[in-house]
Automatic annotation (TrEMBL):
Belongs to the binding-protein-dependent transport system permease family. Gene3D superfamilies: MetI-like (1.10.3720.10). This is Carbohydrate ABC transporter permease. Residues 64-252 form the ABC transmembrane type-1 domain. SUPFAM superfamilies: MetI-like. The chain crosses the membrane at residues 7-30, 68-90, 99-121, 133-153, 174-197, 234-252. Its main location: membrane. It comes from Streptomyces ficellus.
Length: 267
């Protein structure tokens, strides 16, 4: 009975979670002209025209490229910096380590909206408005990523690092040949999260990307609502934005499972 109740509960949560996406896809394939539910339930009239119309009426290809650059570059840099910082906080001994770590972690309590104006002023003074680096650089100091890396690396056996030091390995070699291979599961897990955060990010790209050529998909689709675009085309554009997220999750799902299985690694 306990398993049955759990199965029913999980089924209800899955239904509530999936239903909005199913409705989005149904409306995206509905005949043009603002058709929504219940008309969109007629699958015999499904068409690809909404997708072709939205691709022709908006520069979605450019917006998708901007989102891809923003997400992928941010993932690579955040994973590199977070893994290096996590290794330092987990295995290195230096004065003020705990104070520095918890001070850095305390920035999680500061909402991004409170730092938006200072960020914008700083980036604007440096000439970063409407540029890729102005879009990417302010998001790289990710305290949550550092925390996750530190918590995973601290569980790695100290004997590995001691043996490497005895063999004369440098710090960089220890990091690249011991730390990085062992934290691949958490790198993949964090990579999925960071990709989704940046791919779905709206506020910062809206503020920093002021020209149409620098819009991301989320910002570009939001601007379509103020133009003469039907709800079917907007849902078609939203469906396009979901596809990369599903691909990333599908490709890295095995590493997500591995990160859970190896989270209790001990010496």
């Amino acid at each position: 009975m306990a398993r049955l109740r759990l199965g029913v509960l999980l089924g209800l949560v899955a239904f509530v979670t999936v239903t909005p996406f199913v409705i989005m896809v149904l409306v995206a394939f509905a005949p043009p002209g603002g058709k929504t539910l219940p008309g969109a339930l007629d699958l015999t009239r499904a068409t690809w025209r909404n997708f072709s119309d939205v691709l022709q009426s908006a520069d979605i290809t450019r917006w998708a490229m901007n989102s891809l650059i923003y997400s992928l570059v941010s993932v690579l840099l955040i994973l590199l910096f977070a893994s290096m910082a996590g290794y330092a906080f987990a295995k290195k001994r230096f004065p003020g380590r705990e104070v520095l770590f918890w001070s850095f972690l305390a920035t999680l309590m500061v909402p991004f909206q409170a730092t938006l104006i200072p960020y914008y002023i700083l980036v604007s003074e440096l000439g970063g408005v409407d540029t890729y680096w102005g879009l990417i650089v302010p998001t790289l100091a990710n305290s949550q990523a550092v925390f996750l890396m530190r918590q995973f690396i601290v569980q790695l056996p100290d004997e590995l690092f001691e043996a490497a030091k005895i063999d004369g390995a440098s710090e960089w070699r220890v990091f690249t040949t011991i730390v990085l291979p062992l934290i691949r599961p958490v790198l993949a897990t964090l990579g999925v999260f960071v990709f989704l955060w940046h791919w779905n990010d709206f506020l910062w790209p809206l503020v920093i990307g002021q020209s149409e050529g620098m819009r991301t998909l989320t910002v570009g689709l939001a601007t379509l609502e103020g133009e003469n675009v039907t709800i079917n085309q907007i849902m078609a554009g939203a469906t396009i934005t979901v596809v990369p997220c599903l691909l990333v999750f599908g490709l890295l799902q095995r590493y997500l499972t591995d990160s859970i299985a190896t989270s209790g690694l001990k010496s």
